[in-house]
Amino acid sequence: MARSKKDETSSKNGNGANLDNLETHDERLILPRTCFSVEPGLYFPGEFGVRSEVDMIALPERAEVTGRIQTELVRI
To answer: Rounded to whole angstroms, how far apart are CA atoms 64 and 56?
Structure first.
């Protein structure tokens, strides 16, 4: 990730369930047949932000994408 001229990124939405242990040490498990989303994003205050969303389901032996995988940017 290239850094902005302000050398910072931010998000007002936090990091969801913190499954990556970024903010806290989380020992929760994703239960089988549970849906969740992966929503990585980059936010440059005063400039722009971009976020992607991938919807998933946890099956007993694997995780599977449940919807279309985004292949292009959608400007809003």
So the answer is: 5
